Amino acid sequence: SEAxxxxxxxxxxxxxxxxxxxxxxxxxxxxxxxxxxxxxxDIIRKAKxxxxxxxxxxxxxxxxxxxxxRFARIIGEYFPxxxxxxxxxxxxxxxxLELTNKYSNIKYxxxxxxxxxxxxxxxxxxxxxxxxxxxxxxxxxxxxxxxYEAICFCCPIIVxxxxxxxxxVKSLGIGYIINPNDDESIIKFLKN
Length: 192
What we know:
With 192 residues, the chain is of the alpha/beta class. It has helices spanning 2-47, 68-78, 93-102, 118-123, 137-141, 145-152, 164-172, 183-191; strands at 55-59, 83-87, 106-108, 127-130, 157-160, 175-178.
């Protein structure tokens, strides 16, 4: 019947539109991944020039003082040419303030609005850190928003080895995987 023919034509057109939208989304995703990979390579080149300041950051509710705070402390203590920025808040904010008082290259920027402030934050960051304590099951299997923020804003990400997110970062080639529980491992990563 005519109604069935019109319905079939509408379905066919809807499939074409959906297909085109999916193709565009895939192309956009591939472009973002490519740009993130390129930025990761640019940061490696920048790091080799001692006078260029690389800015690392943690964006979100502060947790994991044994990993994130350790990473920041090592930058403060051994790498004055780099900066570490904290954006966010949590009951651990006093520990962040201790780090900022002790090291001039560690900065605290306070609470932010998500998603409104993310573009501005990530435009001031070279590498975002999401190296969580990987001893708990939740952290081992988590796929945090920071991964998608890093991709969206073309910002390489540092994550903990032995986690699902590490596999994702490795397969996409958009960041670095470290052992965040050991000072020497972090120092070695930052030197290389």
